Amino acid sequence: MTDLLIISLVKVGRKKQLPLLEKVRITDIGAEGNALARVENQVVFVPMLVPGDVVDIKVKRKKKKYLAGAVLRFHEYSSDRIEPVCRHFGVCGGCKWQHLPYELQLKFKEKQVADNLMRIAKVAVPRPEPILPSPEIFRYRNKIEYTFSDRRWLTKEEISSDTDFEKEDALGFHIPGLFDKVLDIHECHLQPEPSNAIREAVRRYAHRKCLPFFNLRQQSGFLRNLIIRNNTKGEVMVIVVFFLDEIERIEGLLDFLSREFPQIKSLFYIINTKKNDSLSDQVPVLYRGAGYLIEEIEGLKFRIGPKSFFQTNTLQAENLYRIALEFSSLTGNEIVYDLYTGTGTIANYMAGRCSKVIGIEYIDEAVEDARLNSEINNIRNTTFFAGDMKNVLNDEFFNRNGRPDVLITDPPRAGMHESVVKAIMSALPSRIVYISCNPSTQARDILLLSEKYDVVKVRPVDMFPHTHHVENVVLLQVR
Question: For residues 85 and 88, what is the distance between their CA atoms, to the nearest angstrom?
Fold first, then answer.
């Protein structure tokens, strides 16, 4: 036993020190939006840099095909680097590309789409059409969720200072990769006002009334989450999530918000006593106002409830749907399937240009919203089904509802299950419009579909400025 312990200690002592790379010039942007350099034919990934920066890099992780590191010091700043707008840039993980000019952000997103189609799909594809820029690059989001924490995240500089931050709490965003660490946010440029004003008013009220912020490790406290939604008319929905069902305190905060912000047309609260922040299984309680907001896209009205999925960049969503419609080439006689239909936005948008639309979604509440959205728009040629896509799509379903002439699919980031891809190829629609927020899983699915389909059009769409995320629309045509 002693000999084994000695051997183990010797092995630990012999562990190789990871290298320091000096005066490395950043040349590109690679996976997950990280900057990229090459040192002695080896790829090095480093976050938060711009091509043209020259830096010293401390290697943190060494793999066979790449190194990953962090910046120790700058020797030269790229001429392309710009000053970030947000004071939280570099610590908050939300807008990692604010130091990149917007035209360069678009360039690297286009490149990401092309690289994934070439490297993963491995099929002949046409040159992608130019990426569609977002109409707004700040204050474009219609939904933001903040988290309360009784102890805020401290930066390295704060930890090494003499100041005592022990008792400071936070109302802000999770630090990426750390479930219990929350960065205190005092400004956010993602959502239009009164978003910031509501957050800061809640903070002040909570401090004045001594309402305890949540402790994620100990599962204690009172205030847990704050969710703010808005529509393009400037109307607001607020959902406050509490850990304890203390109605007097809850009503005090909600009454305060109603008085201070007449823009709040819908006010909810949720009691969440679980160990995680997921609200999919929670029941929102309407405290005041309507139980929804109404958003309009090209004359169609869509009800947005507290748990409804709706594209977070409303103005760009309208452009995205136009591209999907253009790629569909509808003549008015087609049966259209809309997979992962959510609240039926695309299905209802397409309904006036085809014979009928079949929408499928696995979340029951979303399907109810989709049916309601058809009803309020007097649309009578849509039918919605709830269920797991891989179980719903089969020959019996196709025979009962008609086989699709055009199929639109907009899956989550994980893409489509292989059995769903096989079911699509069995139904053999003449055209598939594949909308994706993850070009790598989209490319993987296109590789499977390439057995029977060719890619004929590609159009990236920027839904999320200042991030590496990009939406991509691909038209596939049966051979």
Answer: 9
